Amino acid sequence: MNLSLTGISFAIIALVAGALVPLQAASNAELGRALGHPLWATVVSLLVSVLIVIPVILSMRVPTPILSEIGQLPMWVWFGGIAGVIYITSALILVPRLGATRFIVCVIAGQMLISLILDQYGFMNLPVKQINAGRLVGVTFVLLGMIMVLWLTPSSPNSGDVKASITGDLNTIESASTSSAKSIYHFES
Q1: Longest dimension (CA), the chain
Q2: 153-162 pLDDT per residue, tens
Q3: CA separation (Å) from 144 to 134, 141, 160?
Q4: What CA–CA distance (Å, rounded) separates 46 from 44?
Q5: Which parts of 62-178 fold into alpha helices (H)?
Q6: How many Cβ atoms sit within 10 Å of the Cβ of residue 121?
């Protein structure tokens, strides 16, 4: 077992970062509702990220990027930006429909499955970390947890769950928390 002080510190930082993800999803969902479409909320969210990271870069006196290397990088290095847009937009659309817990448990399960593959084969220049019994059992528990959250937890229309009605291309999401459903999104595609 590897439980050094540094390892524990890194785990706590990762735990805090993970705790921010549902807050990000919920705030972006509200932003999408307010702006009228999830794609506008994606743009605003990414712009806020840029506005936050630039002062951090300046205050830390980070050296300028080595742009001469960009042309020699593999194509998959750009996937981070693509994945960010997909994740943020998915969260905007799905959190009001599934709820934060159901959405995040699926996100975590997806992350765990792909992480096992990345580690096992060292894809994307990551160091190889073989799948072992502990990792396999842990990921199995995550998947079982996802199944429990999705299928064994009853949803109640009176508890604030959100009911989605899709007409055409992501047109309407209705809130089921009140007796008369009110539209919280209306998307025109």
Answers
A1: 60
A2: 766 554 344 4
A3: 15, 5, 25
A4: 5
A5: 79-98, 100-121, 133-147
A6: 13
**pLDDT band with cut points at 50, 70 and 90 for residue 69:** confident
End-to-end CA distance of the chain: 52
Closest to 40 in 3D by CA, of 92, 80, 104, 84? 92
- Amino acid in position 118: L
- % of the chain beyond a pLDDT of 90: 63
DSSP classification of residue 122: T
Q: Using the 8-state DSSP alphabet, how is residue 65 labeled?
A: P
**Phi and psi for 4 in degrees, rounded to 5?**
-85, 165
- In b/e form, how buried is each residue of 26-35, taking b as 16+ CB within 10 angstroms? bbbbebbbee
Q: Count the residues in the chain.
A: 189
Contacts of 7 (CB under 8 A, 6+ apart): none
